[in-house]
Amino acid sequence: MSNKLLFIGEFPPPYGGVTVKDSLLRDEIFSSCDAKTFDLYDFKRRPIALPSLAIALARAVRGADRIALGIGSNSRQSTMLGIIAKLRGREFLGNVTVFMMGRELADYLGENPGQVWKYQAARCIFAESRSLMADFETVGCRNSRYLPNFRKGGRARAPRAVGDTVHFVYFAQVRPEKGIDTLAAAARTLNSEGLADKFDIAVYGTVVDGFQNEFERLLSDVPNMTYKGAFDAATGDVCGELNMYDAAVSSSSWREGMSGSNIECKFAGVANIVSDAGFNPECVGNGVDGLIVRPRNVGSLVEAMRSVIEDRGLLARLKRNSYEDRVNYDVATWKREVLDVVCG
Fold it and tell me: Read out DSSP for 164-194?
């Protein structure tokens, strides 16, 4: 572990998947070795200093024995690999580890085959999904390893007991593709069945441009659905906030990656009701620690929500199993494996 490590990451404010993952890599994993961090976001944060930043980056690359990349854009990541190869030679890419952000890299390589050699030459590509490892095989990269999206275990909160009212939470960007309109329609259906006093829904998230008026109309039609605003997870306690609820609920048709909110719910002792879009079924077991519904399908969502409203024992079991599964997504669980790969 004596190799000098350079971690090239991105830390845009205030909060996002890339920032969270890179911060955990820097603070919880690489802090235990001889590591230096270079924040690529400084190029945007300090445009007047571009020449000096470029020089500093080049010097850092030349002085490193090992390099880890945590870059949010596939094109920027590929460019960075090219810069490293130019400064240190192609063979040095065998000392470079790539941490995938999201799910698009395999698709990007399929569309840009001229970039594949850089990733083939890398020491390892850490992928957030086991199915993505098969996708990398199809584009000729056989050096991927599984590393799930993770969080810090010390912030976990045991599940609260289920009360007389089931508290649902929507914790995502507020837009139709994420299923907010489907959720409102499902709530209206449940209310019409006489269940209005048995559940409520709290909505957190930024409302996308052009959707505010429609969102306000949806809220006005569902008296037991309340908008809480965009939660500042950079300064607030995500697990503590989510812990107040029983089940996160969404029927997104979005091409989901390994959703950070799904993982945070495990650490908060909250069950997940999610669609089978993207990688959701890889981290939420249907009937085990959550329920899987069809994307943006009102009937499917109504059935899932009704089941936990009417069966509190089921809901309690899902919450407990969700919390117990958190260890599989704890950064501490993966620290030794990551260091062995990156620095070994």
Answer: SSEEEEEES-BSGGGTHHHHHHHHHHHIIII
In angstroms, the CA 208 to CA 41 distance is 24
- Do 97 and 123 meet the contact criterion of CB atoms below 8 Å apart? yes
**Start-to-end CA span in the chain (Å):** 6
- Look up residue 57 and give its two tokens: 């980056």
Measured over the CA atoms of residue 228, residue 234, residue 237 and residue 238, the dihedral's sign is positive
- Write out the chain's pLDDT in tens, 344 residues: 457 999 999 998 766 788 989 999 999 999 988 899 999 999 999 999 999 999 999 999 999 999 999 999 999 999 999 999 999 999 999 999 999 988 889 999 999 999 999 999 999 999 999 999 999 999 999 999 999 999 998 889 999 999 999 999 999 999 999 999 999 999 999 999 999 999 999 999 999 999 999 999 999 999 999 999 998 876 789 999 999 999 999 998 877 777 888 999 999 999 999 999 888 999 999 999 999 999 999 999 999 999 999 999 999 999 999 999 999 999 999 999 999 999 98
> In the chain, what are the helix, strand and coil shares in percent, each to the nearest 5?
50, 15, 30
Look up residue 167 and give its amino acid. H
Domain(s) labelled CATH 3.40.50.2000 in the chain stretch across 5-147, 154-328
154-328: CATH, from 3.40.50.280, 2.60.40.10, 3.40.50.300, 3.40.50.2000:
3.40.50.2000
Provide the residue type at 303 as one letter: E
Domain 5-147 has CATH 3.40.50.2000: yes
